[in-house]
């Protein structure tokens, strides 16, 4: 008992800085702040505090160096800062309790709460209870040779995804969609319906007006009760928008390391990359592909690889982070740089199509362009045959849709086209789902099996006055 108390005291005192080094602001250029006086003490990722002229404080982070001067960027507005403003840097005599980027003391009591990227509550429910250990925000992915394999298939509660992009525990999927196609609604359905222990939702650069609508209407009390929501609105500084992604991964990693099955929903990776672009250009990085500096595409895999299975525990079990990262494709271009880079890293992709949404079918998932790389191994042979047949029918109908609408196709000319015309409406009905409707894996495959059941082609009605 005495040893345990001593360890706790040592851990607490290790987090207390021995002193604060005082430095000064020497220049402000755009979003970047030049700081003199830190010497060789600070490294990239270290946190400092900027002191406004009125005495209020702004947290900031060291993002680079130029000669003997450090370059910092603030987590808040730069109003009130000027040449000569004080900068405080905490100095530790011993090993730091965490690496660059800071840490969060997460606990199970965070479930059901709404927080900002710095771990501060936004829901008015009081302070967040601290956890037993610091969790570094800028963590490395688990060792590839030591992390567990994917778990059993996971019930997402959405028929179109259960059927055509079946997901396993620990899998990472990308959700590719333009604006206004129903992406947020689909993510709220996944948060409510997915069979998981806890859901972590990261809203990166979300419109402020839509935050309460998402939390209260789309997510609802049922979804919030098992979720941790991290929010950085579109008017937040780029560091806050970037940090929203790191914080969400850190929270999900905490629950994974506890042996739980966590669902991570991030909306969106595109806005995370846009924040990185603003940071990189402020440091002086050269713009490359569509204005994105090279560091953006180096940081993407470091973020996305943190999701997935955890390390194998002594009892052979392992926690999982099943993740779905949304990508806001610019101009509905599925091959734009961020979408192309994310697609190559993740384990599958779900494409939402504007034309399907305009036709009134929700969720507007284009199953012909969506895939999960784990489907062959997690579904039975009968289920795989069922979905292959449904895909073939939808593909045939898509190829002949224009001719069918124009009346240029004559029934009986091609048996495959006749089959597609007969079954396509039933398949579309299976893919359509209300926002508050839940469909299990078994129900999803049963519905598709019924839709593809062989039924006789209805004979044309005979007029009553026919001879």
From TrEMBL:
Transmembrane segments: none annotated. InterPro entries: AAA+_ATPase, ATPase_a/bsu_AS, ATPase_alpha/beta_chains, ATPase_F1/V1/A1_a/bsu_N, ATPase_F1/V1/A1_a/bsu_nucl-bd, ATPase_T3SS_FliI/YscN, FliI_clade3, P-loop_NTPase. Keywords: ATP synthesis, ATP-binding, Bacterial flagellum biogenesis, Bacterial flagellum protein export, Cell projection, Cilium, Cytoplasm, Flagellum, Hydrogen ion transport, Ion transport, Nucleotide-binding, Protein transport, Translocase, Transport. Residues 121-143 are annotated as: Disordered. The keyword ATP-binding applies. Gene3D superfamilies: 3.40.50.12240. Residues 169-357 form the AAA+ ATPase domain. One of its GO terms (biological process) is bacterial-type flagellum organization. It is found in: Cytoplasm. GO terms for molecular function: ATP binding; ATP hydrolysis activity; protein-exporting ATPase activity; proton-transporting ATP synthase activity, rotational mechanism. Its main location: cytoplasm. It holds the Pfam family ATP-synt_ab. It catalyses: ATP + H2O + cellular proteinSide 1 = ADP + phosphate + cellular proteinSide 2. SUPFAM superfamilies: P-loop containing nucleoside triphosphate hydrolases. GO terms for cellular component: bacterial-type flagellum; cytoplasm; type III protein secretion system complex. Its EC number is 7.1.2.2. Belongs to the ATPase alpha/beta chains family. Probable catalytic subunit of a protein translocase for flagellum-specific export, or a proton translocase involved in local circuits at the flagellum. PANTHER family: ATP SYNTHASE, SPI-1 TYPE 3 SECRETION SYSTEM ATPASE. This is Flagellum-specific ATP synthase.
